Amino acid sequence: MSGENAPAPVGDDPLAALRASTRARVALGRAGDALPTARLLELRAAHAAARDAVHSPLDADDLAGRIAAELGVPVAHAASAAPSRSEYLRRPDLGRRLADRTELERGEHDVVLVVADGLSPLAVQTHAVPMLAEILARLDGWRVAPVVVATQARVPLGDEIATAVGARSVVVLVGERPGMSSTDSLGLYFTYDARRGRRDSERNCLSNVRPPHGTGYAEAATTLAMLMAEARRLGLSGVSLKADPALPES
Amino acid sequence: MTRRRGSLGGHTHEFADLAGLLAAATPERSGDVLAGVAASSEQERVAAQTVLADLPLTTFLDELVVPYETDEVTRLIIDTHDADAFAPIASLTVGGLRDHLLSPDTDTTALAPGLTPEMVAAVSKLMRVQDLVSVARRTPVVTAFRSTLGLPGTLATRLQPNHPTDDPTGVTASIVDGLLLGCGDAVIGINPATDSPARTTDLLHLVDEVRTRYDIPTQSCVLAHVTTSIEIMERGAPVDLVFQSVAGTQAANEGFGVTLAMLGEAHEAALSLRRGTVGTHCMYFETGQGSALSADAHHGVHQQTLEARAYAVCRAFDPLLVNTVVGFIGPEYLYDGMQITRAGLEDNLCGSLLGVPMGVDVCYTNHAEADADDTDTLLTLLGVAGCSFVICVPGGDDVMLHYQSLSFHDALYARQVLGLSPAPEFAGWLEKMEMLGADGRVREPALDSAAMRALTAGVR
Fold first, then answer.
1. Which sites bind adenosylcob(III)alamin (chain A) (predicted)?
2. What residues does each domain of chain A span?
3. Single pTM value for the model
4. What confidence tens digit (pLDDT) does each residue in B392-436 have?
5. B414: Cα separation from own chain's centroid
6. Residue B337 sits at the chain A interface (C-beta within 8 Å)
7. Structural domain A55-234, CATH architecture
8. Does residue B404 sit in helix, strand or coil?
9. What are phi and psi of B190, to 5 degrees?
10. Does residue A212 have a cis bond before it (omega within 30 degrees)?
11. Residues in chain B closer than 8 A to A51 (CB atoms)
12. Would you say B157 and B185 are in contact if contact means Cβ atoms under 8 Å apart?
């Protein structure tokens, strides 16, 4: 069962109009004062899907293998200082720091693409490869570092990875906090001049990449490429950078 | 700075200052661990509680956890402290205050002006869950606008009809769904998807139209930033309640883009509209443990005392509603159901003791170790504790903010098992709509009933 909450038309039922007008869980009916069994189980299923999305570990080797095979680019691994999922959830500070031993090699790059499990490893398992393909296709003129697959990772870990591999900028593809109606949403965070201590206001974010329900890969990549080009021209990213006046603020 | 020591388990535990003592005495919170201020062991925690129990209450008027000179919230707390109200308890220690509050002879509601947030936070650390419940239950705070909230024997509800794109039909559908389940007496309150003044005004007109069409004795609120509310009030928008998120330090409030002066200005403006019918309380505040740390504005103070300080900000502006959004941010501040439950009960008690009309958004995110059993437990405890209101969304699933709150059904449950009623004016309206049974329960509406046809007509 999926976490989707598709409204179902119900004949002459006056509640059918309610159901049809929102994805909110309206007109669920009642068993006494409580939810009917079928509705209760739907909610549990949606919660279970969201929980599993948080706690199912990323198969980093599988993902790295697919990136290398399907996109033909080199891939490296990185891990944050958070030793377990439980510590990762409790200690966001650890998820922002690289583990002491890192195998990342330093080079001369303009940008590094980091695939970070974040709060939904499912989101990166599902969307990272096609999303990377669309981004890489738009990075003519950028010296791109090997793609990094990072585990127990939060967005600012990208800043440390960028420093470690010698990249000026970083794009982090990260699994977003799962809701009951969307468990596999991917967020893209771009930071120009990435280094430790960068604030969230110095990043640009595209959220809810999740075709077919959310933003599509090509659309997200096109917007990202515009932002990156502008960032390179202006020498900054964040709230003062807008590639297009119609862009939502990050 | 006064160093204090306590012995336990063959060790002497030392606390560098009052803030350190309070932090170490607090039941475990992931946010305090994150901030680096939590007790380093269970025995140190109890040693701190033991030291705290012997601390005179007057200490909190002399030793300030956030400096007076640099923090307007501290100045507010100290400058408005009422020595006369404090006099009956001035000679007590924190432990003595706990005993005093638990005595059936104590009028706990009269103490509010004499209590500071630090005092109530401190005493709550010595309390078990049953103390947090029984003292709060004896400390009702009654407020009114078009409905009267906080009366003993009542539990009100905020109907939260959020929609990811603020679609008017979708919002209306959630409002109707909530009304048909007897919810909405505390407020019909929408979190807008954007903070634009035009959007906020549109949503206010939408709810105001529903409210006036069916003559519902409740109030509406679009939870926009206070500056947005001030701006649209000047242009004649139908603002019942002015909303703002607040926190317990000046720096954290600056992170929200708000000062005490701005809140005062908004309060005056909302009062001048005179839209209330049975009362004039017209402010709505949200708070939550962890917000000051999240804004890097915690001054080394742990999250629960800072939360109580936020209530001191609220009470300065005579709010109709205040609620802690207890499990909203995530497990980095409140890790699991156990921490969320305790925090919700502490917040409810501390607000009540300070004279603030406390509600709770009983909620969790999917990355916290919590589920619907935890929210059932906290809701039940809060109902017993006399909590003023809770927040309800369709099916408990907020499709805009991606977190789980209570459902409308949950409110029906709590009212039923605890024998609680909606706000009296709203109960009268439900009766008029033939939605209330003789047993006081909200009826399951017949599909062809007048109420059903009338209410659902708006979304057809």
1. 155, 176, 205
2. 55-234
3. 0.92
4. 999 999 998 989 999 999 999 999 999 999 999 999 999 999 999
5. 18
6. no
7. 3-Layer(aba) Sandwich (3.40)
8. strand
9. -105, 130
10. yes
11. 366
12. yes
